[in-house]
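Deviations from the work plan: none for this task. Representative record:
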Amino acid sequence: MKKKLVSVVLSAAMCASMLVGCGGTTDTAKEDTTAKEETTDEEDTADAGEKTDAAASTDFSGEELSILVSAGWMDNRYDETIARFEETYDVTVDLQAIPADQYDDLLQSKLTTDSCADIFWISSNPFAVDSVIVDPAKYCIDFSDAEWKDIMPEARQASCKAADGKLYGLQIWHNSPEYVMVYNKTMFEEMKLTVPTTYDEMLAVCEKIAAEGVTPWFMPGADGWQHPLAFFQIGGVYEETTPGLYDGLNNNTATFANNEKMLEVLNQYKELSDKGYFGEDWIGTDSSNMQNEFGDRNCAMAMANSSYIKQLQDETGSTDEFGLFLIPLGDNDTYPTNPAGPTMFGYKGTEHPELVEEFFKFVTQTESLQEILDNSPSYTNLDVNDDKIEQHWLPEEEAFMATVDKTKMATSVLQTGTKYTNDYWMDWSADMVAFCQGTMEANDVLTNMDANRAEAAGVAGDDAWK
Amino acid sequence: MSESGGKVNKKRIYPNWFLIIPLLLYVGFFLLPSLMGVFYSFTDWTSRSTDGVSFVGLENYVEIFTSNKDYVSGIFNTLKFTVVSNVLKLIPALLLAIMLQEKMRGKNFYRTLLYLPSILPFVIIGLIFKSILNYNNGLLNGVLEFLQLGFLKQKWLSDLDVVWKSIFGLDAWRGIGYVMTIFIAGLSTIPKTYYEAAQIDGANFWQRLRHITLPMLSGAIMINLVFGLTYGLKVFDIVYVLTNGGPGHATEVMTTYSYQLYSSGQYGMATALNTILLIITLIVGVFVVRKIGKQEVQQ
């Protein structure tokens, strides 16, 4: 009996201590909230400069700001700015860089389980905010009235807005030629090759390069996100072949399936794969070694950004000259116009909404933008409305842009010009590999994209798919 | 009778009502969500279902078995993994356990060495082995070339004929030590006198294994089998970190598909896939426990 009594008393004591612990936390939290509310009221009456100082010295001290981002979207370019932010506000920033092939799934899981970081990134485009974040009003802080919003050109703002017209994101990205063909000009000259402008010419060039024991086109298939670019960056050629295709795809009156041009491009891609022109094991190769492969002259071409030239010359010490040309699959001659890019959003469920807002304000200051550009070997410019920024355009970029017909720049790339397409990038990537390995048919790859887009449209309640 | 009952009660450390809290937690956080999952598998629940969900009958199940996405191959791959991974772990682990039960120098060292991979997280294993198994710059192909065995080089994670073997191999490397430890615990409970008597009767190693070790070890075998089957059926980590279902969709399993469906907000479909997994696990689990349980009773 005594033992029973002791056990009951001990259990009661344990429960009571737990409750006391919980109660204490709540009180503290309440005090914190009250303190913050009071401070916010005070802030409203202060001017902007004082506000920052007050915030830095009192409000945020000791807080932690978490950022969830896919590897490669921030790299080291934000390090200096983040360090300055930490110092200014006496806070710590927890940067969670997730491998690219896992990021989309992880972000969705985090959002749907209400466990997201204070700031998260998506690869955005004019349709992505609704389709990727699904319910932006629920998950994102509304920045429609933010003073920094006009730092972004209108085209970029479109990628930060949802269908409800509200601005949720911030996109700081460059405006260089993206994912066109970068080639070793010196090697081309040595092999007496000319830049291919059609698929047949590309095939002939690859054949000659491969005969020299060099990988013609370095394709990092293991990354998952790189190889689909060969298909999607040439969206203009699909639209040219079937005028109105983009509208049709967005209104659900056209499909990927049975599109002749798309089938042609997929089959051309497979032909290059089958002939080994992407390297011996492109499906198992990631991009981590791409620079060395270029530097060691083991490959002659790859899809990359124009800024990649400077980066690889700096990091490999290569004295070779490099140039750019348009991806010639499907005899493409259109420029990959793309208003999209990695975009950051404030998570509505954050415990530090004011700190998140301060961060957005902080990174859009001229000093921060210049830091971001200067610390980005892969950027040559920033597409922002700030004349005080010193841009770093490359001569190769300027030379390439001079060769592109301006009328061929009207259509944006397929993944951002059509709804729900970009959301299934990794599914497409896997399908494309399956097609190249002979376990899927080309038209099934296209049909799957239609099915996926229909699913996304169904989830989004898109009227065009009802 | 009442005296003996009283004695039993006195020997009890905790009273029965101590079960209430764990039971409530089990029902609230395990049983109820599982049943709700089954219920939601018959609905059109998505991340956009703000106005509630609608009953759609077997639509999700029909979609799973008829969709272009080939969920069926995911189910088949899961079953294949379950069978192969258990065979590859149980048999070598049993032989290793028997070997390391004998008097041999350094057996504790070998036991530790074999057990060590089991404590490594899958994420670490994935990162390390993705690098080791890389075709162009990986350690494995590098060593093979160094040993003049270049003809054995493989595209370990990108060749359709090899990728499953890589997963099975790595899974066995990680799991054998754990299975072996359970077998060693089981082996240590078999009285040595049985073996001595059998030896006097002239029984060889295989006869001793068949007539003494295996029957006396049925408890440990059942534990390993049940653990192995449930692990195999819900396999996710090793596939996710090594291949993420690739190349293409060659190594997709039920849980990777389920993860993708959850991620894209198709909760109804995802729960339907999980319900299929639950049914398969129940059937296999009940069958194994009954079969081996019956053998134990017979002994």
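Chain A has a mean pLDDT of 86.
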